[in-house]
Amino acid sequence: MLGTSLTPDAVGRRTCDLTAIPAAYLQVGTYQRQILGPTLLAMLTVVFGASGNIGRHVANGLNSVGAQVRLTSRNPDMTTLPPGAEVVAADLERPETLSAALDGAHKVFLYAKPAGIDGFVAAAESAGVQHVTLLSSVAVVDLDPTSNPTAWMHMRVESALEASNLEWTFIRPGMFATNTLWLWQKAIREAGVIRLPYPDAQTAPVHEKDVAALAVAALTQPTHHGHAYIVSGPEAVTMRRQVQHIGEALGRGIAIEKSSVDDAREELVKTVPPFVAEAILDGWKAAAESPQSVSTTIADILGRPARTYAQWAEDHAADFR
């Protein structure tokens, strides 16, 4: 469960002592060139996963403050990226593609890919990269992260960065609001009915734009080096209420029916591996049994409230029509 402040890290990583930082430095989208400085803005930042749910917003945020950005894609010709952007082909699992992507780079936005992390670290150190902001997961603070495949995957990448010569910032979200797209989109579009094993389970989904804004702050302010941030949405919301928020955004009701855990598992494994399905079900069960607390990281770092799930539903209403 997420705490109201950054939880002490069970695997020995540093967490952030949220000191007072001038708001002008923290509100992504309101940076001024005289605040960031021409040297910082001239530093090249490479964004991996630039067409993903988070990466594309990181790229947009960096562009909005005038930073120099290079985007990567495994298949640039098949990916929709901003016109005129510098785009290079790179695959974290193919280390021979990384040197060109990182050439001249000072900073990197990275997602967790254990199979490629050693090759990435070697290429980044060789290229002279100074700082990496990693999209990690709150799962790494599990008391026994090695028993959780999701936790292990992210811990493996965090550990490799910690052991490197690179400066780092770890962003550890809990549940992404965008998860409800693949969970519920088809059912809402085709049947207008959502079946939930734990309709009153409370989660605190975080808007992908808030995660990206935090990443932009980490990439543009050295204050965040060496810190790990736990991130959630601003409020705990039952799954029943989340469905209702989507219905309100659509202007129509969505029926909610109770399902068995076995039926929910059967549906989940159509989309995700069994171990992921079990992790999701375990998380929902825990969220139904214990109050869901939230982190204040977004507000503390960005100087503004985090976006609510209702706002996310409004932003994504078209995706459910």
The helix-strand sequence is HHHEHEEHEHEHEHEEHEEHEHHHH
Whole-number mean pLDDT: 86
For the largest beta-sheet, the strand count, sense and barrel status come to: 7 strands, parallel
Q: Give the overall shape, derived from the CA principal axes.
A: globular
| Uncertain residue ranges | 1-35
- Amount of beta strand: 5-15%
Strand order of the biggest β-sheet: 3-2-1-4-5-6-9
Q: Give the helix tally.
A: 14
Topology, number of strands: 11
Using the CA coordinates, give the radius of gyration. Answer: 20 Å
Distance between the termini: 32 Å
What is the element layout, followed by pairings?
Blueprint: H1 23-26, H2 33-36, H3 38-42, E1 44-47, H4 55-64, E2 68-73, E3 86-89, H5 98-102, E4 107-111, H6 117-127, E5 131-135, H7 149-162, E6 167-173, H8 179-190, E7 193-196, E8 202-203, H9 208-220, E9 228-231, E10 237-238, H10 239-250, E11 255-258, H11 261-268, H12 274-289, H13 297-302, H14 309-315
Parallel strand pairs: 1-2, 1-4, 2-3, 4-5, 5-6, 6-9, 7-11
Antiparallel strand pairs: 8-10
Summarize the structure in words.
The protein has helices at residues 23-26, 33-36, 38-42, 55-64, 98-102, 117-127, 149-162, 179-190, 208-220, 239-250, 261-268, 274-289, 297-302, 309-315, and strands at residues 44-47, 68-73, 86-89, 107-111, 131-135, 167-173, 193-196, 202-203, 228-231, 237-238, 255-258. It has a 7-stranded parallel β-sheet with strand order 3-2-1-4-5-6-9, sandwiched between helices. It has a two-stranded parallel ribbon with strand order 7-11. A two-stranded antiparallel ribbon has the order 8-10. The chain is globular. The protein is of the alpha/beta class. Helix 6 (117-127) links the parallel strand 4 and strand 5. Helix 10 (239-250) packs parallel to helix 14 (309-315). The chain starts with 22 loop residues before the first helix and ends in a 6-residue tail after the last helix. The chain has 14 helices and 11 strands. Helices cover 40% and strands 15% of the residues.
